[in-house]
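FIELD: query
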Amino acid sequence: MSVAYADEIEQSTPYEVFDCFVLDEAEISSPKEKPRNLIAYWLLGLCNNYAYVIMLSAAHDILSEDFQGNSTVPTPSPVTNNTRDCNPVSTGAILLADVLPSLAMKLTMPFLLTHIRLRVLIVILLSSASFLMVSFSTAQWQAFLGVVFAAISGGLGEVTFLQYSSHYDKDVVSTWSSGTGGSGLFGALSFAALTTAGLSARKTVLLMLVIPALMAITFFFILDHEKRRVKTNDSDADTEPLMEENQPSFKGHIAPISMRSKCRMLPRMARFIVPLGSVYLFEYFINQGVFELIYFENIWLDHHSQYRWLQVDYQLGVFLSRSSVNLFRINAVWFLAVLQFVNVILLTTEAVFLYIPSIWIVFTIVFWEGLLAGAAYVNTFYRVAFETIPQEKAFAMGITSLAGSVGVSTAGALAVPFHQYLCSLPIIHRTTKW
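FIELD: result
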């Protein structure tokens, strides 16, 4: 039966078998997830991405001479009539350090069977090490190593918790997505607010050690691990799953499917991976390749602060849209990628020609960028949770998370030469500001 069912899924389009605006009978009748698990997955999403967000929010500070000199008050960059206010290295370099190790985790972990508690413990330790390394760094390479630790922690955590979510109701995917959006908003906001209030970037990063502690409490004490799982025959991945009412609780390994089945799944997963990866490519090229080059002189925010608050603005949009899937759903993620590309054109030309008269217009565009980014993420993973059969769901979740890292890595690689090129151009002063 399961072979026929799987073949039927492969031969049908997502819109013939699944319509994300119409719930099928099984979905309507399925029991609701326990509130404690929904809360736990929201907190896990928040904690898992927090270090990643902090490193990107602090990127402009980490690359500046003030950070390495342990200065609390930023020193204005030397700007003449013919040079732009640029760091020697693009924030895209921080992006690469923050995502390439994460990409390695997402490429390998879905294919490996590792004890869930061991994975989570490694995530917590690496997240803590990242904050400590950046806070106490005396050289730029040490700060970069801290960023790498944050990347490994975030990548391993994402693939682990998304795979583990296959043993709960799919509503935990929604709360996880909302939590990751919350990490972006609260992470960027906390960093911007504390540094604006006068706390040094180093001390602000050090304060974030409370986040790994919260993750440990959430996973080991709040999340209910006494879940019944679908049991499969390891020797034949196509065997129909059986739900056993008196089966022992799931506390060990992620349920396996054969390597052959995983490889056969990859072409089918492209419909999720390609659109999501494109959205990530466009948004992170903007965030780490363009943000730092959009600078409004003589306003109430200095250059460092403008970069930080643009990150907050973007993360606000992400948070709102990642929390929206239970209100409305979007199948056409590819259309979100097209709209995000329009944002790339608008903000890239602004970085080159400085033609937008007000920072408030930029804030509006960046907020819209965040809405598109969050919507692409949550709708993609909701569809994966809804459109894959139980045996394949854990692997599907893990491999789809790869899309983001591929897109972000490509964005970082493009951002570095774009930064060097644009910073070599003479500055263009705005003729109109309001």
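FIELD: remark
Residues 1-30, 70-81, 228-254 have pLDDT under 50 and may be disordered.
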